[in-house]
Amino acid sequence: MRIALLSYRSKTHCGGQGVYVRHLSRGLVEQGHHVEVFSGPPYPDGLDPRVRLCKVPSLDLYREPDPFRVPRPSEIRSQIDLLELATMWTAGFPEPRTFGLRVARLLAERRADFDVVHDNQSLGTGLRKIAASGMPVVATVHHPITRDRVLDLAAARWWRKPLVHRWYGFAEMQKRVARTIPDLLTVSTTSATDIAADFGVSPEQLHVVPLGVDTTVFAPTERPRVPGRIIAIASADVPLKGVSNLLQAVAKLRTERDVELQLVARLESKGPTEKLIADLGISDIVHISSGLTDADLAALLASAEIACIPSLYEGFSLPAVEAMASGTPIVASRAGALPEVLGQDGAAAVLVQPGNVEELTKSLGELLDNPDQLHRMGIAGRRRAVEVYSWESVAAQTVTVYRRAIDRMSAC
């Protein structure tokens, strides 16, 4: 099968989307399929050499180290470029829309090259053009972006709320486009329920295929774990990830015991998270890193006594599966898909009320004081990761949905 895999931004360190593209594409080529990734910047790294990459250049208005940059006049070469710039200047986020329009132009000239097109979370209007051309289309919705919008609005000061509304304007486009795609993939039954409710799609459109983990990379090691080390991974510095609650819990824990927090996140310079760390007086025990390789992240996870996932919502949570594979016990919020991913039996994770700092502090402290329980939970988590999650299974289940989309288009 010849597969065009679309992702408007795909670098691994931009969050789960980049991880998904890299591992799914490798799983598909392992099964003998031909995969070409179409990606806007930042482009994916670590793709399997058998996977072809087609770069889809944009104005790259959010690149580091100069986000919200002003492009040179010579960079503006099309109406799509003008749309991208104008949307940014009016406080919107243009990438999902403009990426889809650019890919639709590329694929219009390459219809004969692919059997199916798989979109990864962009859900731009260009997808409708691709489907109208007769190409079977499948789209992955990791979770409804509407949940992020609700939490960001709740956290924003009154004068910022209009800007938050404008930033998430693309969500309405995603809703409209999702309703026109007969085959949608998502990563958990929780996400499927939320997508059906928030996007107004039919439950029959949704196919649940959980994400996987490389259990050879993410695995326990022979090295002893660092006493008191807690690790948390946040793909974005936003209220949804609940990092502020964890920081408050760590500040309380340090008054009773020796602890440290390894926070893997790209924080906004002089932003609210950095300010909170300083205000709580815990700069000496909070160590921040970002841009880690899989090997470095795996080593860090395997060195911690506890992994904490304090999110207020998760459609899946790759860090949860990676922590389980590393044999690292977890304290997580009872939010979104986290209970589903971690298991309801409490064998691998302790679940706490989202946003409840006191309960989070208590659960972390009790686990740190109970090495036998930590050991049992680590073993149970590793077992669950190996038995339930694998990228080979993800690829096979995804191909089943591709065949369904192809058969539907052939029948038209």
Overview of this structure, please?
43% of the residues lie in helices and 15% in strands. It has 412 residues and is of the alpha/beta class. The chain has two domains: 2-212 and 391-411, Rossmann fold, CATH 3.40.50; 229-388, Rossmann fold (3-Layer(aba) Sandwich), CATH 3.40.50. The protein has a seven-stranded parallel beta sheet with strand order 3-2-1-4-5-6-7, with helices on both faces. The protein has a six-stranded parallel beta sheet with strand order 10-9-8-11-12-13, sandwiched between helices. The longest helix is centred in the last third of the chain and has 21 residues, at 391-411. The radius of gyration is 21 Å and the shape is globular. The model has no long low-confidence stretch (mean pLDDT 94).
**What is the overall shape?**
globular
Number of helices: 16
Strand order of the largest sheet: 3-2-1-4-5-6-7
How far the N terminus sits from the C terminus, by CA atoms, comes to 20 Å
Q: Cα-atom Rg, whole angstroms?
A: 21 Å
